[in-house]
Amino acid sequence: MTHPTATVSAALLQAEVARRRTFAIISHPDAGKTTLTEKFLLYGGAVEEAGSVRARKNARRSTSDWMAMERDRGISISSTALQFDYLGCRFNLLDTPGHQDFSEDTYRTLMAVDAAIMVLDAARGIEPQTRKLFDVCRQRRIPILTFINKLDRPGQDPLDLLDEIERTLGIQAVPMNWPIGDGPNFQGVFDLANRSVLRFERTEGGRHRAPVTVSDIEDPALTRLLGDRGHVLLREQVQLVEGAVASFDDDAFLSGDMSPVYFGSALNNFGVEPFLEALRDLAPPPGPRLTSDGAVLEPGDEQFSGFIFKIQANMDPQHRDRMAFLRVCSGRFEKDMTVYHPRLDRTVRVTRPHRLFAQERETVEEAYAGDVVGLVNPGLFIIGDTLTTGRSIRFDPIPRFEPECFATIEVESIAKSKQFHRGLEQLEEEGAVRVLYPVVGTRSAPILAACGMLQFEVVAARLESEYGVVARTTALPYVSARRVTAGLEGDGYLPRGALRAEDGHGHPIVLFSSQWEEGYAREQNPALKLEPLG
Ligand code: G4P
């Protein structure tokens, strides 16, 4: 017989899972990601007036050089998980860093979401960064909703934009609504499923929700607003779109083959509410996850489980601690609970779980599948760690990108060596760079290995602002790093351009200056076994 309280909690678990929507926004810088986020929070009631997120963004920007770098380059390096409630749903928005050099970090964040929003600037269409992030979503078959933003400015023809999405991204783009008017005369959207006209009114600075009037396509107000010709044109366009485009297919959307497209203006709050409704109705709640031994863990399973997808040091200069971000996958997370940490084969009590709102922290009492919890990390967690209760399980490791850029890093003042090494260790823990140590030759400075050169500047800037260490990086000509698993004992032959190194655990590694060199090393040492760093 089932225990009555167990039945209640199972039902509660299911209900909590069903109302979660965990997503990220992918976009090119300036398309309007921050503005849309802010408007979600406005509609979700998490902020009273739009403008506060930007104010926080600006306040944060002035806190360190690292943030100044973010500002100067117009990129967002740090990542935050925001939570808000709307229409009975609990939304978790995971911020993805916006620069190509941070693709690894972004990749990991996208491992933790169930859906993505692609924001496009109506004038610019698909831009390089949108494409890159889209590719990651595609690989993971993440369902994508598209928001075409800035309709209040002169932009491309909506049909051309749909065509561009299909042509360049190879995904079917299905308009769910259609813009009414454009540029300064943008009035709202026509909801194609309900055949209703949603006319919005501007509010001062877009700080408050835009009042909306619902009517039909024959609404005489449209003639007044758009003119006779404009109104006729709208009817024609709607007719054309209704006749020509494929209808929305849930399966195709969930498998990442089709994207529902919405038009709007985040700045003016036009189309934001229908878009949130779509996110609630179409984006999937957390789904089952496969464990490493092939078992399926349902999000409503009583067993708590989650994985660490991000680590960040010094998020708050006042706290100076490391935060590990956990995505809950199943069961119920509770403050102060004791969980099993399979990698360390020990239990851990999670005493200070946090939720983050911009830079502010708030203690989390409980969380369910789809939620993100920040755990203060006293060196216990690394990216990819599983935490669980009950039987021991693990999720597959989060794939790492192979480094393609290398640089030495030298501390300017020897007196700061201790802080230098601690800083490197913590930044490596975040997974943005790897730190290697040469074992032969005269060079003794550590070597940074990363996917992009910008990462080296970030490390140097962060060492300075967060650890008080001035360090200099010098680019190295290597193009790849390989772990040596066998066959290079003693004097095994390596080409002149290659370098022997090791990681922080003393595992042997070779750096190569070209692919040819790597091939040559393999030829010369038949027993040599080289593997990606992984
Ligand atoms: P991002 O996070 O994707 O980088 O973009 P963000 O929201 O910061 O927006 C980039 C710029 O585009 C901002 O202008 C923002 O106000 C503007 N913007 C966003 N949505 C809309 C929209 O619907 N219509 C119009 N016309 N503009 C929009 P900015 O001048 O760079 O910043 P700010 O001075 O407005 O803060």
Looking at this protein, list some descriptive labels:
single chain, 534 residues, alpha+beta, Rossmann fold, Elongation Factor Tu (Ef-tu), domain 3, Alpha-Beta Plaits, 3 domains, 8-stranded antiparallel beta sheet, 7-stranded mixed beta sheet, 13 helices, 29% helix, globular, disordered N terminus, binds guanosine-5',3'-tetraphosphate
Description:
The chain is of the alpha+beta class. The protein has three domains: 24-77 and 97-282, Rossmann fold (3-Layer(aba) Sandwich), CATH 3.40.50; 289-388, Elongation Factor Tu (Ef-tu), domain 3; 405-532, Alpha-Beta Plaits. The protein is built from 13 helices and 31 strands. An eight-stranded antiparallel beta sheet has the order 27-24-26-25-29-30-28-31. A seven-stranded mixed beta sheet has the order 2-3-1-4-5-11-6, with helices on both faces. The chain has a six-stranded antiparallel beta sheet with strand order 20-19-22-15-14-23. The longest helix has 25 residues, at 220-244. The chain is globular. The chain starts with a helix and ends with a strand. Bound molecules: guanosine-5',3'-tetraphosphate.
Main sheet, how many strands, which sense, barrel? 8 strands, antiparallel
The CATH architecture of the largest domain comes to: 3-Layer(aba) Sandwich
Give the strand content: 25-35%
What CATH calls the topology of the largest domain is Rossmann fold
Radius of gyration: 26 Å
Strand order within the widest beta sheet? 27-24-26-25-29-30-28-31
In the CATH scheme, the class of the largest domain would be Alpha Beta
Shape estimate:
globular
Q: Write the CATH homologous superfamily of the largest domain.
A: P-loop containing nucleotide triphosphate hydrolases
User: Are there runs of 5+ residues with pLDDT below 50, and where?
Assistant: 1-6, 58-79
Portion of residues within helices: 25-40%
| Distance from first to last alpha carbon | 48 Å
Name the bound molecules: guanosine-5',3'-tetraphosphate
